[in-house]
Amino acid sequence: MFELLKAGGILMVPIVACSILALAIILERFWTLRPTRVAPPQTINELWRWIKKKELNGRKLKALQGSSPLGRILAGGLINAKHGREIMKESIEHEASQVIHDLERFLNPLGTVATITPLLGLLGTVIGMIKVFAEIQLAGVGNAGNLAGGISEALITTAAGLSVAIPALICHRYFIRRVDELVVGMEQEAIKLVEVVHGDREIDVEGA
Questions:
Q1: Domain total of the chain
Q2: What is the C-alpha end-to-end distance of the chain, expressed in Å?
Q3: Range of the domain at 52
Q4: pLDDT over 60 (residue 90)
Q5: What is the pTM for the complete model shown?
Q6: φ, ψ (nearest 5 deg) of residue 121
Q7: What's the mean pLDDT when you consider all of the chain?
Q8: By the 8 A CB rule, do 125 and 157 touch?
């Protein structure tokens, strides 16, 4: 592996760095964007029980706020529920914007990696071909070893750049889709909460 990296030339260094960064982001986002962590079903079910039994208080609101991103959004609305429907909705939207920002963290760098690594590979290809033509100009086509070295450098960097970019792009699109799905689910729960608090909807406690 080291010999392969060495044969690819200096541009293999940023490509390898990009691959390490992409892998770290992918693993972190897979862990962070788990539905059971972002919007656990037990959070909303427990909240409905608290509301139905009139057990909701400041301590439980604080626990709800720290339980999950969904809990943070719902707690933000409940804290200001007494000021009316519109203020409650604005509080939910404010918390939701911050939660969405957190859910999308590191996705831009991952997208950047997916974009620049093929360009780095292409640059390596260009540099490798320049070396090939420079060798031809100096020594003619008789020195096959030097020509092969330049061509090898060009092909290795291209392959390495694409090998990093393809999975990074796939994961970037996948995470964007997952964030969208999580946001839609949390929006539905927030709307339901507003309707329940203001008497437009009956509480449906799962398993109760």
A1: 1
A2: 59
A3: 1-198
A4: yes
A5: 0.83
A6: -65, -40
A7: 86
A8: yes
- Residue 86 neighbours by CB distance under 10 Å: 10
CA distance 101 to 99: 5
pLDDT digits (tens, 9 = 90+) for 103-127: 999 999 999 999 999 999 999 888 8
Using the structure block, give the residue that is written with the tokens 């943070």: 72
User: Which conformational region is residue 106 in: left (phi greater than 0), alpha (psi within -120 to 50 degrees), or beta?
Assistant: left
Residue 135 lies in a domain: yes
Distance CA 139, CA 161 (A): 30
Q: Is 207 contained in some domain?
A: no
Angle at 110 between CA 174 and CA 163, to 5 degrees: 85
Q: Is the dihedral of CA 23, 24, 25, 27 positive or negative?
A: positive
pLDDT digits (tens, 9 = 90+) for 21-62: 999 999 999 999 999 999 998 888 888 888 888 888 888 999
Give the residue among 158, 153, 161 at the shortest CA–CA distance from 130: 153
**Which single residue is written with the structure tokens 């290809």?**
125
**Among 166, 156, 168, 170, residue whose Cα is nearest residue 123:** 156
